[in-house]
Amino acid sequence: MAVMVMDAPSAWDVLDGVNLPRGYRVEITEGKIIMTPQGEYQWKVILEAAPQIKQQLAARGDILSDVMIDFPSSQYGYAPDLAVIAPGAERNSRGRFEWHSLEAVLEVVSKSSRDNDFAKKVRLYAECGIPVYVVIDPEAGICTVHRRPTRTGAYEDETEVPFGADLVLPLAGREITVKTEGFPKAGDLG
Questions:
Q1: How far apart are CA 16 and CA 33, in angstroms?
Q2: What is residue 20's three-state secondary structure?
Q3: Above 80 in pLDDT, residue 57?
Q4: What is the pTM of this model?
Q5: What is the distance between the alpha carbons of residues 86 and 46, in angstroms, rounded to a whole number?
Q6: CA separation (Å) from 22 to 19, 36, 62, 180?
């Protein structure tokens, strides 16, 4: 895999040396720092999905959760709920992976992240050429799989997978299947 060097400063540079409170998710959207507490639904979906993905990757790539990724704009800094890193991807000089290292991104929707997950992230991830973007929505009990990104900020293919059905992630030269019957729907937790 060719190593690309970002010429734009990273959005994360503004947080260098800042002590952030634990238990909060921090992202940068359109140059604004957004801090939200991680929700229980989000955490439970990540706990269900991550081990399944990790096992099936079998050392052909890696998976990260809530880890800073550098994007080609100083206005956006995302730390996806789950990011599948391509085999052979290398970290940049900041010690982070960049957008072109991602084979798939999975985001779990919360009430506070709805606009970001369904609009802004779709646009940015497609523009960056991230092959698979999945929005997992506990409110609706549906995973929306976006494939075939365009540079105009859209995905050409969108498939809805209801909770309980298998979520298939088509990665380069392989597929990962995530069982979703353990994903909590809104109202399941009490």
A1: 13
A2: coil
A3: yes
A4: 0.80
A5: 19
A6: 9, 11, 24, 28
